[in-house]
Design a protein that fits this description.
Membrane topology: Multi-pass membrane protein
CATH superfamily: MetI-like
Subcellular location: Cell membrane
Shape: globular
Transmembrane segments: 29-53, 84-111, 118-139, 171-191, 275-297
Number of strands: 0
Domain ABC transmembrane type-1: 85-296
Helix content: 55-70%
Structural class: mainly alpha
Keywords: Cell membrane, Membrane, Transmembrane, Transmembrane helix, Transport
């Protein structure tokens, strides 16, 4: 009697058939986002450049003669417009200096351990989250008002006459409210830079007998430079576009005392309907902002390279 033995069978795997369809490369996946950015940023900018070469007023939209660079010439030669440019620089520069000083002091305070530090840090951020127009309303009606404001109440409590801040010191008032709004941003960036400072450097300086001022001057400040430059870059670009605080508090006045370039563009475009002049002012603002941004970015790159080189 014979038994049949089953022989092992071998199976060969068939490679899966290639999937049919369109194969998208990573570059092709980026193009929808690039197209969206081009349509939403570059097309409006080139339309603004186009309208800046025309005398175009919406009061008479049928008349739109080509005038070349006349709008730019009017902007750069009118003394009133030069005052507006000076207001823009003073507003941005004054706010930037104050936010760096107050934000640096707050960062040094928050870098220490004390009871309630987390609560203070949360309360500090809150003013940065308030919308610009709400900031203007709060400061105008609750703080700076000569009849019902907090500052007027403090002055009267010490026997002094209340001060009409928005009437007598309009630019200082606007700088104060924007400083209140942007100080948390500077404080958080500077605090991040401060927390990356190694403790052994501070301890070594103290063992060598360095005073607190010498620690700050020779260790903290050089380590802080990159964070300071980031604050300067980001705030400069943002402060050159301030509009809501001025619209809600002074409306650019008294006169043109607090009118900056963005509010000037708003007045020309939506109060006087002078689209040509407003477009030229917008183009100049973009060029001015880009020049500052490129200069500050190069300054940051140069400082970073020098720090890496020792």
């Amino acid at each position: 009697m014979t038994t049949a033995q089953s022989l092992p069978t071998t199976t060969t795997r068939v490679p899966p058939a290639p999937k049919r369809g369109i194969r998208l490369t990573p570059a092709a996946l980026i193009w929808p986002a690039m197209l969206y950015l081009i349509l939403t940023t570059q097309v409006p900018f080139f339309m603004t450049v186009y309208y800046s070469f025309f005398r175009y007023n919406l009061v008479d939209p049928t008349s739109r003669p080509f005038i070349g660079l006349e709008n730019y010439q009017n902007l750069l030669t009118d003394p009133q417009n030069l005052r507006i440019l000076l207001n823009t620089v003073v507003l941005a520069g004054g706010t930037l200096i104050l936010t760096l000083i107050i934000g640096g002091a707050l960062a040094l305070l928050l870098n220490r351990n004390f009871l309630g530090r987390a609560l203070l840090r949360t309360l500090l951020i809150s003013s940065f989250l308030v919308m610009p127009i709400v900031t203007a309303v709060i400061w105008k009606n609750m703080l700076l008002s000569p009849t019902s404001g907090l500052f007027a109440w403090v002055s009267q409590s010490f026997g002094q006459a209340p001060v009409d801040w928005l009437g007598q010191h309009p630019m200082l008032s606007v700088i104060m409210m924007i400083t209140w709004e942007w100080t948390p941003f500077a404080a958080l960036i500077l605090l991040t830079g401060l927390q990356s400072l190694p403790d052994d450097q501070i301890e070594a300086a103290r063992l060598d007998g360095a005073s607190p001022w010498q620690e700050f001057q020779h260790i903290v400040l050089p380590h802080w430079m990159q964070a300071i430059q980031v604050v300067v870059l980001m705030e400069t670009i943002a402060l050159l576009q301030v509009y809501g605080e001025i619209y809600g508090s002074t409306s650019g006045g008294p006169g043109i005392a607090t009118t900056n370039l963005p509010y000037f563009i708003y007045q020309k475009a939506f109060a006087e309907y002078n689209i040509g002049l407003a477009s030229a002012a917008g183009v100049l603002t973009v060029i001015f902002t880009n020049i500052l941004a490129v200069y500050l970015l190069r300054l940051i790159s140069r400082t970073t390279a020098s720090n890496r080189g020792g």
